[in-house]
């Protein structure tokens, strides 16, 4: 069920034209990096998930990067169940990228 939550997010981002990855080795900004979800068991056949999605753009973290991040965030909000977001910096290896950290929730049933 957890993979299903990640798949729903990835499919929604793809439909919105946002390239996404679940492995940081595969990012090519601008893109989204999807973390593994946190979850709460509602019952044996239903879980509630919360997933952080990092919207990432190439550096430096200047006004151009901020504009691109805000556009990606607008597109993501329209495509997936985003409940909150905040500006951030995402570190991959030794590289830091301007980013937005979005919290996405879904309830999945089997």
Structure description:
The chain has 110 residues and is α+β, with helices and mostly antiparallel strands. It has a single domain (2-109), classed as STM4215-like, CATH 3.30.2000. The chain has helices at 2-15, 63-79, and strands at residues 20-21, 31-34, 38-43, 46-56, 82-92, 95-109. Strands 1, 2, 3, 4, 5 and 6 form a six-stranded mixed β-sheet that branches. A hairpin with a 2-residue loop joins strand 3 (38-43) and strand 4 (46-56). The chain starts with a helix and ends with a strand. The mean pLDDT is 96.
Features:
6 strands; 45% strand; 110 residues; six-stranded mixed sheet; 28% helix; 2 helices; alpha+beta
Computed structural class: alpha+beta
User: What series of H and E elements makes up the topology?
Assistant: HEEEEHEE
Shape: elongated
Number of DSSP helical runs: 2
Indicate the low-confidence ranges by residue numbers.
Answer: none
State the separation between the terminal residues, measured CA to CA. 7 Å
The first-level CATH class is given as Alpha Beta
What is the total number of structural domains?
1
